[in-house]
Amino acid sequence: MKPARAAARRYLPTSPFGAPPAAPPAEQFAVRDQVTHDRYGLGRVIRVETDASLVVDFGSCCIRIMTPCAKLTKL
């Protein structure tokens, strides 16, 4: 038997509680932006491939990272 999956709750306009906050916009990266990654450290964006991935140079290696990535932060 599969466990039940939690469904996203819908907002009712008559609810005394406020509407849920909107999701923050996805971070946009450009070539030569400095970034930090939780695993690889400090790096610089060297290529933006479409809007879904980045190639980042971390000094010792170049890594292709799919966005959005929770571990990647623009400085």
Task: Explain what this protein looks like in three dimensions.
This protein has strands at residues 34-37, 41-49, 53-57, 62-66, 72-74. A five-stranded antiparallel β-sheet has the order 4-3-2-1-5, with no helix packed on it. The chain is an all-beta fold and 75 residues long.
What topology emerges from the helices and strands here?
Layout: E1 34-37, E2 41-49, E3 53-57, E4 62-66, E5 72-74
Antiparallel strand pairs: 1-2, 1-5, 2-3, 3-4
Which range best describes the helical content: under 10%, 10-25%, 25-40%, 40-55%, 55-70% or over 70%? Answer: under 10%
Largest sheet: 5 strands, antiparallel
Low-confidence stretches: none
**Arithmetic mean pLDDT:** 87
Strand content: 25-35%
Q: End-to-end distance, in Å?
A: 46 Å
Shape: elongated
Structural class: mainly beta
Find the count of extended strands (DSSP E, 2+ residues): 5
The DSSP helix count reads 0
Cα gyration radius (Å) = 18 Å
Strand order of the largest sheet: 4-3-2-1-5
- Helix-strand pattern, N to C? EEEEE
